[in-house]
Design a protein that fits this description.
By secondary structure, this protein is of the alpha+beta class. The protein has 3 domains: about 120 residues, Alpha-Beta Complex (Adenine-n6-DNA-methyltransferase TaqI, Chain A, domain 2); about 90 residues; about 150 residues, Alpha-Beta Complex (Adenine-n6-DNA-methyltransferase TaqI, Chain A, domain 2), CATH 3.90.220. The chain contains 10 helices and 22 strands.
C-alpha cells in the first residue's frame, strides 16, 4: 500500500501570467499532476482529472487539490483509483464547512491508502479501465447527438421565415400554476408526489428523487397532472428560462409545485403537445422569453401573463404529426442507448471494484 501526497488546491489556468504575479496566493502544478475539485458539489460529481499543459507549469485558484504522483505509481492507475465512487463518498463524509461551501480537506487525500502492485500490473489495470471508459465516452457522444437532433429537425421543418400563423398561447391551452408549499388548510390532507423545479429539465424529467406534499382532495383534483400536459419552469438561468417537457404519466398521481407552470392544450385545438414542447425550446420562443423575463443577477423569471401572451406558431396538424413521428423514433433510439449506457456503467463499476482488490 502507498499513501498519496496532496498539495494545496488549484484550478485549471485560464490565461498566461508572469511568475512574479502569481507566486503568492496561488498553487503551482505541473503537467500530468492530478487535479481534484474539493468544493461541493464538484467533488461529488467526480470532477477529477489530469493536468494537460502546453507550458511547463500551471497556476489556478484554491478550489482544487493537487496530487503529484511519484515514480512508483502510474498516473492513469492513480486517476482511476481517485475516481472510484467509494472515494467520493468517503471524501464527502470528511467535508468541512457549511452550506454550499463545504470542502474536502487535504488531510483526507493524504491519508488515502492505495494498493500498489508492480508498475507493469498498474499499467495493465489502467489500460483495461481506460478501454472500458472509452466505450462509455463514445456512448455518451451518441446520446448527446441524439439529444440534439430534435432541435435540429424542428429548425429544418419549421424555419423562422415560414408563413405559419402565430396565436397567443392563452387561446390554445389552459395554463395554471401549481401547489404552494407552506400554505395553511383546515381540511384533511394526504401525502402526494409533486414535481419541483429540480425534476423539470429541458426536454426530460429527472425522477430519481420526487418529494411529496400534504394536499387536500380539492388540491389533488386541481393540481394533478394529466398525460400530455406540458410542464415548464418559471425561472432559473437565462439560457434555461421556460425549460420543460411533456408529462407522460411517469407516476400514477403527481401534482406540480407553484414554480412549475402546467400547460394543457385544449382538446378542440389542432396542436400536438410534443410539437408545443419543441416550439418552447426553439429560438423563437427563447427570444420571446428573454425579452419578456424579469432578470436579476443572472436569474430570469416569467410570470403567468407573459406565458399566456407567448405567440405560438400553428402549422398544419399533419406536419406536426410527421415531426412527432420523427421525434418518437429518436426517443426510442435514445432509450436504447441509455439502457446500453447503464449496462456500461454497471460493468465499469464492477471493473473498478475488482481492479483495486487484485481481482482483475
Amino acid at each position: 500500500m502507498a499513501q498519496l501526497d496532496a498539495q494545496s488546491a488549484v484550478a485549471t489556468p485560464l490565461d498566461s501570467r508572469s511568475f512574479s504575479s502569481v507566486s503568492k496566493g496561488y498553487t503551482i502544478f505541473n503537467n500530468h499532476d492530478i487535479l481534484a475539485a474539493k468544493i461541493t458539489p464538484c467533488w461529488e460529481n467526480g470532477k477529477i482529472g489530469e493536468a494537460s499543459l502546453t507550458h511547463p507549469i500551471g497556476v489556478g485558484s484554491t478550489e482544487f487539490h493537487v496530487i503529484r504522483h511519484g515514480k512508483s505509481i502510474d498516473r492513469r492507475y492513480l486517476l482511476h483509483f481517485l475516481r472510484r465512487p467509494e472515494i467520493r463518498t468517503a471524501g464527502q463524509l470528511r467535508m468541512t464547512g457549511s452550506g454550499g461551501q463545504r470542502r474536502v480537506p487535504a488531510s483526507f487525500i493524504k491519508e488515502l491508502r492505495i494498493p500498489l502492485p508492480p508498475l507493469d500490473e498498474q499499467r495493465r489495470i489502467a489500460a483495461i479501465l481506460d478501454q472500458a471508459d472509452a466505450i462509455r465516452a463514445k456512448r455518451h457522444q451518441t446520446l448527446n447527438h441524439l439529444e440534439s437532433l430534435p432541435a435540429a429537425i424542428f429548425l429544418k421543418n419549421f424555419h423562422e421565415d415560414s408563413h405559419d400563423e402565430y396565436t397567443p398561447l392563452s387561446n390554445l391551452a389552459d395554463i395554471a400554476s401549481g401547489i404552494t408549499k407552506g400554505r395553511r388548510t383546515s381540511d384533511p390532507t394526504r401525502p402526494v408526489p409533486y414535481l419541483a423545479v429540480y425534476n423539470v429539465q429541458a426536454g426530460h424529467l429527472k425522477m430519481d428523487f420526487v418529494k411529496t406534499i400534504n394536499a387536500t382532495t380539492e388540491e389533488i383534483d386541481r393540481y394533478s397532472l394529466h398525460s400530455g400536459d406540458l410542464v415548464l419552469t418559471e425561472g432559473g438561468d437565462p439560457d434555461k428560462l421556460g425549460r420543460g417537457t411533456v408529462w407522460r404519466d411517469e407516476l400514477p398521481l403527481c401534482l406540480h409545485q407553484n414554480h412549475i407552470f402546467r400547460v394543457r392544450v385544449r382538446p378542440d385545438i389542432p396542436l400536438h403537445s410534443d410539437f408545443l414542447s419543441a416550439f418552447m425550446a426553439s429560438s423563437t420562443a427563447r427570444k420571446y422569453f428573454l425579452r419578456a423575463a424579469k432578470q436579476t443577477t443572472g436569474i430570469a423569471s416569467i410570470n403567468m401573463r407573459q406565458l399566456r401572451a407567448l405567440p405560438v406558431r400553428l402549422p398544419p396538424i399533419t406536419l406536426q404529426k410527421l415531426f412527432v413521428d420523427e421525434l418518437n423514433k429518436i426517443n426510442a433510439q435514445r432509450s436504447r442507448v441509455k439502457a446500453a449506457l447503464a449496462r456500461d456503467d454497471e460493468l465499469f463499476a464492477s471493473l473498478q471494484s475488482r481492479a483495486f482488490k487484485g481481482e482483475l
